[in-house]
Amino acid sequence: KTRVKKLEFKERDPIGYEKMFSKLRGGIVHARETAKRIAASPIVEQEGELCFTLYNAVGDSVLTSTGIIIHVGTMGSAIKYMVENNWEDNPGINDKDIFTNNDCAIGNVHPCDIMTLVPIFHDEKLIGWVGGVTHVIDTGSVTPGSMSTGQVQRFGDGYMITCRKTGANDESFKDWLHESQRSVRTPKYWILDERTRIAGCHMIRDLVMEVIKEDGIDSYMRFIDEVIEEGRRGLISRIKSMTIPGKYRKVAFVDVPYAHKDIGVCSEFAKLDTIMHSPVEITINKDATWKLDFDGASRWGWHSFNCNQVSFTSGIWVMMTQTLIPTSRIN
Q1: What pLDDT, on the 0 to 100 scale, is given for residue 2?
Q2: Could you tell me the residue ranges of all domains in the chain?
Q3: Which is it for the CA torsion 181, 182, 183, 189, positive or negative?
Q4: Contact (CB, 8 A) for 52 and 201
Q5: Pick from 110, 131, 122: which is nearest to 310 by CA?
Q6: Which residues does the chain have with pLDDT short of 50?
Q7: Distance from C-alpha of 159 to C-alpha of 171, rounded to nearest angstrom
Q8: 116 near 194, Cβ under 8 Å?
Q9: From CA 121, how far away is CA 185, in angstroms rounded?
Q10: Which of 72, 214, 243, 252 falls between 20 and 30 A from 181, CA-CA?
Q11: Using an 8 Å Cβ cutoff, are 110 and 30 in contact?
């Protein structure tokens, strides 16, 4: 789909545009604050390790809540994976379906970040998605806890879910409920986190339906196209106003003390002390285009600190937005 060239809705009816933005954004934040009360996990309920995001039909972010917004990119990547791999035909994408993912090679940062994805339909046509993610307490990995570090291959990461259809007609499949709870050490926290994500997604889906009923499907579809383009323009404007063109360089080092006697490692060949080097060069041009160069960074290693592409790009997105755009107009 070609990029929107002109913000027609915003220019024609700026008040209507802002009202729709405020209602959707406020509703998404409200859904997060309400849904997290379902969770019993202190990671979610007290620390607020969850996030909800509204997407268009192909996984581009429209609006997001507060919270762990690095997952704006990861959930979008999971949606794009389903679209690109023809999930529409098999297993099928239907109204009131529920999908679950935590596959870091597709769209995730850590295996403990479990995401629920719910499609939004209008007149039997897919018009968008809602995604919700929570940081769960345990994934059944080689060591207890959400952030296991003893494994040196992804096969030790625990329960792995690849954009799996886990529910239909707004109800989770029984085999999924039994299997998932039997695969982790903290089943009660797991299932309450699941209910948190589903509840929030359904609240946002209902909100979208309410907006469409009030303002019409054409206005809504035009709005989501324009707000994505407005976000792109806003980032360019902030780069121009907040940065100085040129090259910025930084280095960072991270130690991996796997030879230490107190570090439990599954594979003996991984018991090595190493240092990861992470240099970066940022080139900012006068037209607000920019380039990142990580030439010289360490290769992957036999440890738990490797990174897939989507984790990397999502981390860059968070850095850019939280540094340059201290407002709700990010996507």
Answers
A1: 67
A2: 8-234, 243-324
A3: positive
A4: yes
A5: 110
A6: none
A7: 21
A8: yes
A9: 36
A10: 72
A11: no
